[in-house]
Structure formats: C-alpha cells, structure tokens
Amino acid sequence: MASDRAGVVVVGAGIAGVACAGELRRAGVPVEIRERGRVAGGRMASKRFDGRPADLGAAYLTVSDPDFAEVVHGWQAAGLAREWTDTFVAYDNGGRREAPGPMRWAAPGGLRSLVEHLAWDLTVVVDRLVLGVEPGPTVDGRRCAAVVLAMPGPQAALLLAPALAAATKVVERQRWAPTLSAVLRFPARRWADFRGAFVNDHPLLSLVCDDGDRRGDGAPVLVAHTTPGFAAGHLAQPTGAAPAVEAAVRDLLALPERAVHVHVHRWTYASPSAGADSGFHLDDDGIGLAGDAFGEPRVQTAWRSGRDLGRALARRLA
Ligand SMILES: Cc1cc2nc3c(=O)[nH]c(=O)nc-3n(C[C@H](O)[C@H](O)[C@H](O)COP(=O)(O)OP(=O)(O)OC[C@H]3O[C@@H](n4cnc5c(N)ncnc54)[C@H](O)[C@@H]3O)c2cc1C
C-alpha cells in the first residue's frame, strides 16, 4: 500500500482478517494486513515439531455455508484440505460411545496452511504489533480509510481509544473462555482407532484428537484441549500443566507408555460465548470488527464475518 491515507488497515491475519482483506482487494480497495505474530493463521495454528506440523488451535473445520463450501473445495482441489471424519467418540457417564456428526475437514499440512493459501496475494506485514486505534481513523498515529480489528474482542479492546465508543461497546459485550492445547508425542501408536474424542463432564479434558489420523501421516501424536476451568488455573504458567494433561490423556485412553514430549500452548481467548446480533460491526468512525464472536465460534463464522465486513467496506469506500 503506497499510503495509509488511501487504504484500509486490517489488524490480525487470522481467517477473518484474511477473508476481509481478500474481499477488499478484489473490489480494488488498497488494503494491508498487520499481524503481531511471525506468521498468518491466528487460532488456525500449526506448530512444527521435528519438521512435522501439529494443529494446536482449531481442531478441524465444519462446513454448512455454501459460499464457505466453495472455499473449502478450492482448498481440497489444491490438495490442502481433506474430509477427515463424521464420527468421533464421546466419553461420558463413565462410558464410551460413537458420536456421529457433521463431516470434519482437516489439512494434511496443518490448518494454518489454509489461511496462508487465502493470503497468498495479499500484503501481510508480520511481526507488527499494532498499539492503538484513534478517531480519524488512525492506526498507530497514521490516518487510513478504515480500520478492521479481526481478533478476539478483549484484544481489540486494548487498541481502541475510549472515544471510539460504538466499537468499544461491542467488544465489551463479548465473553471469552480460555483453553490449553497440549501436543503429546508418543513413541508408537498404542491406542485403538478413535479419530477424535469429545470428553464430557471431565474436570480437565474437553477434546482429544488423533493428529496422525487427522493429518493422514499416522504419526503417534495426540492433541488434547482442556476445559476452560482447568485452563484458567494455568494461564500464568501453562507448561506446568503438562504432567496433569498427560496423565489425564493416558488414563482416558489407557495408554501404556509415557509421551516422549509434551508441548502446552495457552489460548487465553480461545472461544467466545456471547452471541452477537449481526455478522460483523462497522460504525460511522470507520472502525470494523470481525471474527468468530459474530456467530457460532467456528472457523466458518470467522471467515463469513470477515468476508461480509470486507464487502460492506468496499461498498462504503467505492
Ligand atoms: C483450542 C481451539 C480449538 C478450536 N477448535 C475449533 C474447531 O474444531 N472448529 C472450528 O471451526 N473452530 C475452532 N476453533 C475456533 C477457530 O480457531 C476460530 O473461530 C478462528 O480461527 C478465528 O479466526 P479469527 O480470524 O476470527 O481470529 P484469530 O485466528 O484469533 O486471529 C486474530 C489475529 O489477530 C492478531 N492480533 C491480535 N492482536 C493484535 C495486534 N495488536 N496487532 C497485530 N495483530 C494482532 C493475532 O495474532 C491473530 O493472528 C478453535 C479455537 C481454539 C483456540
């Protein structure tokens, strides 16, 4: 972007920000994404262990929106996404049962690869922590045509000047819960096939996925997500939770061996709970908000929220 004055600044290179920027770019509006992390993806996060990516944010995608289905089929045609399973198991009331559900999609290269694919022709400035948004609008002191904050509400709240009352009100209504994700690497696959397991009524675990099955390489890797309550007690020092998470997973799946490595990631803002009235926010100050808080907390919601905000902004700026 030659000058901030003419363009839109999208803060956050998760799927909502990338979908929004893509829509603006297609409409001919200059747009730049600024991302505080080293890579795009946000909570569609894949981290490499000895060169192999494991998904430690979103566990999979589900698809019900026909427009999002087109995007997913584009990823599939590019060899980036594949149908994984429509059947998990559920642990509850002391038992284990099959839990049929919607088709869940996975990415052999990790879910982050899907966001990177959508962003390939966009300007994404990484390692760029945005510090403040003021009326104008200005981002870190420079004027632009509009600003999109595509991130969890509490992160957006840190950026919004108090004078930006409409957007501040929206983010303050949001309620978010934390999760810890643990990547457990084992010496061998010593568990019965299960793909993914919902763990109900457990004090520590909420979901366990077979990452080798999900990614299709059969690696002996499990990824466990904890309950918000357990995560809340370990946000200051998430690595300290590793022994308890490993013990809970081994107990659940009756695993004979210890993991050779456990990595714990903290998601302070993993999942929003309060529903919103609309699919995004765009106010007269030129501030837009998008993300999964504007509907069911899912990848599809974040994508649609960003896409729809991009369309609305393109119409306004045309
Ligand atoms: C553990 C976990 C499991 C999940 N499981 C599923 C699932 O199975 N299926 C499903 O559909 N969804 C799942 N989700 C939800 C899904 O990941 C999200 O709905 C989706 O990825 C949200 O995308 P987003 O673009 O709205 O936000 P994010 O992906 O959070 O993107 C926000 C971006 O903004 C950046 N940012 C924040 N502040 C700043 C700043 N000041 N300056 C610059 N950049 C900034 C962040 O670094 C981040 O990259 C899961 C989420 C988690 C955490």
Describe the structure.
This protein is an alpha/beta fold. The chain folds into two domains: 1-53 and 111-175 and 274-318, FAD/NAD(P)-binding domain (3-Layer(bba) Sandwich), CATH 3.50.50.60; 59-108 and 177-272, Polyamine Oxidase, Chain A, domain 2, CATH 3.90.660. Helices cover 27% and strands 30% of the residues. The chain has helices spanning 15-26, 66-77, 112-118, 153-157, 165-173, 211-215, 228-232, 242-253, 299-317, and strands spanning 8-11, 31-34, 46-49, 52-55, 82-92, 95-106, 124-125, 133-134, 138-139, 142-143, 146-150, 176-185, 196-199, 205-210, 221-226, 261-272, 281-282, 287-290. Strands 6-5-13-14-15-12-16 form a seven-stranded mixed sheet. A six-stranded mixed sheet has the order 7-2-1-11-18-17, covered by helices on one side. Strands 8-9-10 form a three-stranded antiparallel sheet, with no helix packed on it. A hairpin with a 5-residue loop joins β13 and β14 (205-210). α1 runs parallel beside α9. The chain is globular. The model is unreliable at 1-5 (pLDDT under 50). Bound molecules: flavin-adenine dinucleotide. Flavin-adenine dinucleotide (FAD) binds at residues 11-17, 34-37, 42-44, 57-61, 129-130, 150-152, 155, 159, 179, 181, 225, 267, 270, 291-292, 297-299, 302.
Total count of domains = 2
Order of SSEs = EHEEEHEEHEEEEEHHEEEHEHHEEEH
Unreliable stretches, pLDDT < 50, 5 or more residues?
1-5
Number of helices: 9
